[in-house]
Amino acid sequence: MLISKIASTGGSDKRVTGWRWSLLIGLWLIMLPAFAWSLSYHVISIPTRDGKTLAADLYAIDTTAARAVILIQTPYNRITYRIRTTLPQAGGNLFPMDSLAYNYVVLDWRGFFGSKAAAAANYDRGLDGYDAVEWVAQRRWCNGRVGTFGGSALGLIQFQTAKHHPPHLVCCVPMVKDYKTKYEDFFFGGDLRREHVQSLDSLGFLTIESIIAHPAKDPYWQLVETAADYPDSFAVPMFLVSGWYDHFPDGVLRAFRDMRERSDPSVRPLHRLFMGPWEHGGIGALGQGALEYPGATKIPDSLELQFFARYLRDVNNGWEQRPVVEYFQMGEDAWRTTTDWLSVAKAADTLFLGPGRSIVPSPATSTEAPDSFVCNPRDPTPALGGSRFDPFDKSVLTGPQDLSLTIETRSDVLVFSTPLLTTPLVVDGQVTAELAVAIDRSDADVAVRLCDVYPDGRSMIMQQGIRRLRFRESTGRETPAVPGTVYTIAITLPDLALTFLPGHRLRLVVSGADYPHFDLNLNNGGPMYAAGDTLPVKIGIHHDAQNRSRIILPVAKALSPVSRAQTFGKLLPRAGVGKIVVLDNRDEHYLTSRELYDITGRRVFRGARSGVYIPGAQCK
Length: 620
What we know:
This protein is α+β, with helices and mostly antiparallel strands.
């Protein structure tokens, strides 16, 4: 219709002139991707063992052809997939698309949207996953092989489904999610993850009241965690994907280690982990907060398809030879590999807070006055960037953001920085801030943000954490602070892989709040999460010979030497731009170039400083 209209404009004889042919062809080329990605859907109902049904959509180009099926179970309304699979410009696709190789089923969780009528209190949705897998496997459009896919809540349901061992489940791709439910999912250092828990409440997964009813890590949380600890139940290969800017990268890393050690012995060697420079909702995207990572763009999609091809279609594509763990080293913008994330950092470097709000390699040897500030709950230090996530407010800035002109200029924060670095500082693991703190109340919060300060002055937040003083000894026990007493508290930040480059600085930003990312402390020492008077609190950070404050950094071991450097296939540098170098180490491939062109002269990449990763690339 559109093409007919274009062809008939501009003349009574309705002939298409030369320039109109050019326009016609151009528009046709623009529209081709939409046609190529378009899939028709068919509404289906999936029965469950308790007599209820789950609303679902089948995506298939031919329902008479039996193909492997990729199952997606969502609490976020399956209808959104209809729009985004037929109109890529509406936000991209929500699953790894290969409509010639797979059919897809997207179903609404029990109790949500189209499956609202199936609601049942405290029902194990893993049983629904089992029932869906087995029902799908018996359809004429399925060849008996089913894989699962999805992130966050869609990742959790995959673990819950695999736990029950549906016979026709072949493999899973859970993203940005740990299978275990635990106290630390809702509290950080004894402080409620306010924004996160509010989002879960609004989405219908829980109530804030049920969480704050147990503000300490009491026996209730021990029972919850024990009930959710089941990696020994996994008997299919899994491909875990997550990001350093996600809510819980440390949880995914721990989950993967547990799966490698405790899942069925037949699949332990088959699990793979892929950690990129991504936020919770930005897996594979170019932009992450205020930074861009061209070397990590769209890679998960291709790897997910490679994983599914290996296990759902028996394609001999070398998947088993892929590194066990692949992770993105931010700063260097390069992909690295290991067999065990915990083995990457072999040592710990310690830096100390010093005079002039400095960060130095040696501790103080004399008496120094503490640095102090006043935190007022009526004007709390606001949250900005980092692992924040609010699906209901698109204005919330997440991921790496510049704190230099907003947070760091406030009077209620302390900013400690290293001098300009002259050599790279490679950090792989969990950074811990051990701070000697004194307050003039019986309770307060101490929040820290780890920043990478660029040569142009931008102070980009990388990770953040907090500690509530009444939980300084243990999150399982409240102990009021004695005003004026110096306590050493530890704030361990989530894992990250980051190289602070020469010319940069490492920075620690200390405040008494990070709101609403974490809950506000009223500072009155009374009951938490209850109405009461707010009090300003003076917080002192000590860094003298007797009371040392320090930062403990997990430092990576020396990288293995590169085996060789070669030009890369048929990708050629533009004259005057510089050579392209591929560093080939097992199945890793890196490019170093400002611009990349194919043999026809068409630019296929621009802007990377280093570490452009090309999965499956072949060196010649």
